[in-house]
Here is the input.
Amino acid sequence: MAQDTARQPPPTAPTAPARALLPLILPSVTVGIVTSLVFVGVSAAAEKLQHVLWGPLPDALGVGRYSVLWMFVVLFATGVAVGLVVWKVPGHAGPDPATLGLDAPVLPPRVLPGLLIAVGLMLAGGPSLGPENPIIAVNVGLAMWLGQKLVPRTPDALWPVLAEAGTIGALFGTPVAAALVISESLAGRPLRGRLWDNLFAPLTAAACGAITTTLIARPTFDLGLPPFGHPRWSDVVAALVIAAAAALLGMCAVYVFPYVHAVFRRLRHPMLMLPAGGLVLGALAAVGGHLTLFKGLTEVGELARDPGGWSAGQFAAMAVVKLAALVVAASCGFRGGRIFPAVFIGAALGLCAHALVPAVHPAVAVATGVLGMLLAITRQGWVSLFTAAALVASPAVLALLCIASLPAWLLVTGRPQMQLHADGSPIR
Here is the structure.
């Protein structure tokens, strides 16, 4: 009898009844739509300011739009402007961005306006950071504040999850990325009920955030690279080598990150740290060119449109300069995330491999380069796989990505992350 009992499979968790999930639909839909509108609104405002700063304004002054002088001026001025926000605006634009990841803390409402201004100025001015971390933080704080006021009976723990899922759905234009991120975060927690029951509300928010962004802005991650057909053994070897090389390069930045951060912290004041960071970024832009500015998503599209337009050395230089710019921008206090710049770095590294060995398919090179870099920089396995696959829009590359992720993950797991504790020590 004891043996029969031992052989029985463990009981599965009961599914939640529909009446338990139905009340979550309206809050999830609302949060998803609002998070998308916040993201699209900030992005649109930043793009308009960027157009002025890097178009009509230098033209009117008779300065080249991407001349070395103008890149220095704008990046320094961006550091001054963001420094003023961090110094003077209530809430100081939130905590040190080097301590934040995708899982944002709940910030009080008074912090949110300054954080929105800081990220908008950063996106327009050219530092190599994306909008994801601060936009998630703003949406989490906004959802918690409004949710507690308008729907006080809803558990407080629900609002940050909905806001994070809705924002990730809005950022990527698909709820799949959000579902993968939330599933990964739920893996370390005790679940009540089935996984899909726990994903019901976040997936609803992510879907609404994604469709709102798609209807308004029509985003796309497909780089338009030549389609990848049937994999060959040489593609497997190339995928393994490129992903591992990208992961190793990314880990170099991860290990340097706390030291660069410590150097800027010694300046102590945002009006010293951020302008100094702007000057360093200006010097890096002078070396790498204007394609190494900004969050990198538009710029990586320019690289992909002409994979043969640059030499292997030029692709390698852009990857290294962009990686250095990411480290500096994230260390000196600019409010921003690291996913989109890492995509540019990985893509440039992959195109460098294609330029060195033309037999390597550009879709394989770009996807695996992005995969390895994102694994090192974000330590988000599902997001790395999803983003790399979305860039090439070729289902045949998925198997190669899964294979290439294994040695790349062995190189990064258990090691420091590109995120710091409050005392400046790296998170492992």
Observations:
- Residues 1-6 have pLDDT under 50 and may be disordered.
- The chain is about 70% helix and 0% strand.
